Amino acid sequence: MKRSVQMFLLILLIVATLSFGVTIIDDAGRLVEIPSVPGKVVSAAPSATRFLLSLGLENKIVGVTDWDMFQSEKIGNLVPLNIEKIYSLNPDLVITFGGFQLPEVKKLEKAGLKVVVLNPVTLNDIVKDITLLGGIFGISDKASRLADNVRNEIVNMGIKTSKIPLEKRPTVFFTVTPPDDNVKELWTAGMGSYINELITIAGGVNIVAPYTGNNGWLPVDWEFLVYKNPDIIIIASYGDPQKTLNNIKNSKIFGSLKAVRKGKVYIVNGNEISQISPETVKYLKKFYNFFYGGN
Predict the structure, then answer these.
(1) Residue 2 three-state SS
(2) In angstroms, rounded to a whole number, what is the distance separating the alpha carbons of residues 111 and 7?
(3) Pfam family example for this protein (predicted)?
(4) Closest of 161, 159, 152, 150 to residue 292, by C-alpha
(5) How many domains, the chain?
(6) 270-292 in b/e burial notation, b at 16+ Cβ within 10 A?
(7) In what order do the strands lie in the sheet with 115-117?
(8) Is residue 46 included in any domain, yes or no?
(9) Are residues 168 and 288 both part of a single domain?
(10) Are both 123 and 247 inside the same structural domain?
(11) pLDDT digits (tens, 9 = 90+) for 120-166
């Protein structure tokens, strides 16, 4: 009898293992079959790495691009991907993002590699992709808790700022372009971008909100910025924040703006805010404090 029970439990374990396989639809609209929980993963996008870290999956990462801060085997540039190097790491899964990296998917699949495209562009996409990865890695409960936390951050801030009249909200300009009077265009985020959502939900008015581009990003000229003369300027810096701030103060064009004169220019970590992930929602509080006081 005891032996029969043991055999029955063993069969259940085997069936459970064999039946793990899930089929998902990734952010490129592709149907992807995941036959078993991936043990080794190559993250070909820094933002994907941030998702994996948020879910406690760092021990599964065996390779990242040269643009990634995570300490793992480097696979080279974002584009073109070094297919041979990735293949040599024998990953169970490669995670890429969309946009200009999308053509790399076919090359990876031709090499016999399993690929999932993770390309969140909105705050709701963060919640969706957390859930997606939870299903892929068999940690749905953990992913659900993280997704709930992210969703609550968004909802709670939205409730907090919903009663602020439009006329009392500060106008805001966000840019990832280093302040330099010789630069003719400033890259910013408009409609359809998560940056626009962060500004809006945190209680600001994005001066570029009526405009859009690829994933919501677009260039504007100096004349536009001077004409709009925003109350607040947020700059994503990829270098020394203090140096960036000094450059702004010494800029003839930036220096003429209301936000600069009133000390309403704020520097944020470019690497962090430009890589959408579960951590991105913490900028709701940061932006709110920029707009209405606080640290």
Answers:
(1) helix
(2) 40
(3) Peripla_BP_2
(4) 161
(5) 2
(6) bebbbbbbbbbbebbbbbbebbb
(7) 61-64, 41-43, 93-96, 115-117
(8) yes
(9) yes
(10) no
(11) 999 999 999 999 999 999 999 999 999 999 999 999 999 999 999 99
Identify the sign of the CA torsion 88, 89, 92, 96: negative
Parallel/antiparallel/unpaired status of strands 31-34 and 41-43: unpaired
Which of 248, 183, 255 is CA-nearest to residue 221? 183
In tens, the pLDDT along 24-81 reads 999 999 999 999 999 999 999 999 999 999 999 999 999 999 999 999 999 999 999 9
Q: Of all residues in the chain, what percent carry a pLDDT higher than 70?
A: 92
CA-based diameter of the chain, in Å? 87
In this structure, what CATH number is given to the domain that contains residue 237?
3.40.50.1980
Does some domain include residue 13? no
Structural domain range at position 133: 18-150
> What was the pLDDT predicted at 269?
94
Q: Are 41 and 60 in contact (CB under 8 A)?
A: yes
Please indicate, yes or no, whether residues 223 and 110 belong to a single structural domain of this protein. no
Q: What is the pLDDT of residue 177?
A: 78
Are 122 and 199 in a shared domain? no
Does the predicted model carry a pTM greater than 0.85?
yes
Residue 84 in any domain: the answer is yes
Q: Are 129 and 280 in contact (CB under 8 A)?
A: no
pLDDT tens, residue by residue, 153-192: 999 999 999 999 999 999 999 999 777 767 789 999 999 9
Q: How far apart are the first and last CA of the chain?
A: 67
Cβ pair 45, 61 in contact under 8 A: no
